């Protein structure tokens, strides 16, 4: 089946999830280190305030903080972590499939191009994507998604021992007590 966005859907630009658990808060859009400056400049150019936090770091020693950041994350604009700041929810314009348009669509982060693909071999789509919920899965019309995912994977290979994940402390008010903030050692 061919992948195509469901009419009027903007879900993946709006909804943010707790990952890998509530303790870590809600995540943002994954931004590779080499994308960070470009995205920051696009925000300035469009007059948009953004927050980019670290996401994954690595270190040689367990008892120190990360010495290298493998990925950052672009946080949502709402207090609860939802809604990408680049999503145009105000102007009344529509994306080609009828959802809210992205203000930086042609220059959006690789992670946005890859979505909803989460594995390329075998092809696996994020089951939270509305297309997957309604149509199951797809194996066609995913070339740009595959290309973007492979680029991300190539850059995300850790070259030293310990992996750290950044807790964003962003989420629903009722989850404030559970959420942590800052680097947490994963292994
Ligand atoms: S990728 Fe999925 S969730 Fe995102 S707009 Fe398309 S159908 Fe909706
Ligand atoms: S950058 Fe654009 S495509 Fe990516 S989440 Fe934001 S609005 Fe959606």
Topology:
Blueprint (H helix, E strand, L loop, with lengths): L10 H4 L14 E3 L1 H13 L6 E8 L8 E7 L35 H5 L2 E4 L2 E3 L4 H6 L7 H13 L6 E7 L12 E5 L2
Antiparallel strand pairs: 1-3, 2-3, 2-6, 4-5, 6-7
Bound molecules: iron/sulfur cluster (2 copies).
The site of one iron/sulfur cluster has 12 residues, from helix 1 and helix 4.
Tell me what you see in this structure.
With 187 residues, this protein is an alpha+beta fold. The protein has one domain (11-185). It is built from five helices and seven strands, in the order αβαββαββααββ. It has helices spanning 11-14, 33-45, 110-114, 130-135, 143-155, and strands spanning 29-31, 52-59, 68-74, 117-120, 123-125, 162-168, 181-185. It has a five-stranded antiparallel β-sheet with strand order 1-3-2-6-7. A two-stranded antiparallel ribbon has the order 4-5. Strand 4 (117-120) and strand 5 (123-125) form a beta hairpin. The longest helix is centred in the N-terminal third of the chain and has 13 residues, at 33-45. Bound molecules: iron/sulfur cluster (SF4) (2 copies).
Features of the shown structure:
single chain; 5 helices; 187 residues; binds iron/sulfur cluster; five-stranded antiparallel beta sheet
């Amino acid at each position: 089946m061919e992948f195509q966005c469901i009419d009027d859907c903007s879900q993946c630009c709006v909804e943010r999830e707790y990952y890998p658990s509530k303790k870590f808060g809600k995540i943002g859009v994954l931004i590779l280190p080499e994308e960070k400056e470009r995205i920051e400049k696009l925000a300035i150019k469009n007059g948009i305030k953004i927050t980019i936090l670290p996401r994954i770091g690595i270190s040689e020693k367990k008892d120190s903080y990360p010495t290298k950041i493998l990925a950052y994350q672009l946080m949502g604009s709402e207090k609860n972590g939802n809604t990408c700041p680049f999503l145009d929810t105000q102007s009344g314009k529509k994306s080609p499939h009828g959802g809210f348009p992205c203000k930086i669509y042609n220059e959006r982060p690789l992670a946005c191009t890859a979505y909803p693909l989460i594995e390329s071999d075998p092809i696996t789509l994020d089951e939270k994507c509305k297309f997957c919920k309604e149509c199951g899965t797809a194996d066609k019309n995913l070339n740009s998604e595959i290309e973007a995912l492979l680029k991300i994977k190539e850059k995300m290979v850790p070259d030293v021992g310990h992996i750290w994940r950044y807790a964003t402390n962003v989420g629903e008010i009722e989850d404030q007590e559970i959420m942590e903030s800052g680097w947490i050692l994963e292994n």
